[in-house]
Amino acid sequence: MAERTTRLWLALALLAVAMLRAAGPGALGQWPPLARAQTADLTPDPTPSAADANATSTPARPFVVAIDPGHGGTEVGAAHPSWEGAPPLREKDVNLAIALDLRDLLEARGYQVVMTRTMDTNVNVDGLDLNGDGVVNNDDDLQARVDIANQAHADVLVSIHNNGAADRSVRGTSVWYCADHPQGARARRLAQLLQQAFLAHLRGIGYSPLDQGANDDPPLHKPYGHLFVVGVKTPRVARPSEMPGVVGESLYVTNDREAALLAQEQVRQELAAAYRDAVVAFLEQPQ
Questions:
Q1: Beta carbons within 10 angstroms of residue 260's beta carbon
Q2: What phi and psi, each to the nearest 5 degrees, are found at residue 56?
Q3: Which residues, 6 or more positions from 55, have their beta carbon under 8 angstroms from its beta carbon?
Q4: What would the pLDDT profile of 19-78 be if each residue is shown by its tens digit?
C-alpha cells in the first residue's frame, strides 16, 4: 500500500513539473516578490561631486565689467559744430549715453557693472595728485578711472570713446589695446570681438563703416608709447589696470555723416549693444 502511495505522489509531482514547463517561465513569477523594485529603491545615490556642492552652496560670482565713458567735465573730447542752432555734439556726452545704455544691457544679463562716471563730471573730483608726479592734471583723472576698475576687481575694462580729426572728411571705426600689457593677448581678443561687433551693428542699421581694425597702441604716439587707461606702468601711470581692457573709437564726431549718426539714440543703442555682444562673447566663451 505504501509503495503504491509513493508512486502516486511521484506521478503527481512529475505531472505538475510538466505542466509548468508547458506554461513557460513566466508562470513561475518572480521570487522574491517585488525583488526588482526593491533593488532599485535600495541603490545608493551617486556621491555628489565638489562641483555639485559648490553649485548649490556657493553661488557663482557674477562677471564684473568696468565701463569708462571717456572724457567728462572739463574734458570735452572731440566735438562737432551745431546744426541749425542746435548745441554742438560733444564726444563726452555721446560716450556717456552709450555707456549708460551698456550698463543697463549688462545688468539685465546679471553682470555687475562699475562706472567711472555717471554724470558730466571729471572723475578725480577731489583734485588729487593720484599718480604722484607732483602735478594735478588730466593724467590724475585717468588714474582715477584705472583705480576704480582695479578696486572693483573687474574682469574687463571698456573705455568708450568716439574719434575726432581736424580733417572733417576723415571717418572710420577702430578699437585699441596694449599688447605689452600683462593681459595683452586677452585684450587683443576682446578688441577683435568689439571691432567685429561694431561693424556688424553699424551695417545692420544701413551704414557701411570704414574698418580701421583692432590695433595695438604704439601708432597712437601716446606719451611713453601707450594708452593710459588700458596700458602698462609708465612715469605717467602709477597703478596700471589689472584686467584686459580696450578703447573703442566707434565713429568720428567730427565727420558730418558719422556725427549725424551719433546724434541718433537708435545708433547709440546699437553701439552699446555692440559693446555688450563683445563683452559677453569674451567672458562667456573664453579661449
A1: 14
A2: -95, -30
A3: none
A4: 444 444 443 333 333 333 333 333 344 444 444 433 444 448 899 999 999 999 999 999
Residue entry with cell 514547463: 21
Cell 597702441, residue? Answer: 217
Its pTM stands at 0.80
Distance CA 287, CA 281 (A): 10
Distances from the Cα of 45 to the Cαs of 36, 39, 41, 53, in angstroms? 17, 13, 10, 14
Please give the full DSSP string across 215-236, using - where no structure is assigned.
EESGGG--GGGS-STTS---SS
Please name each of the domains of the chain with its CATH number: 67-284 (3.40.630.40)
What does the block give as the cell for 272?
A: 552699446
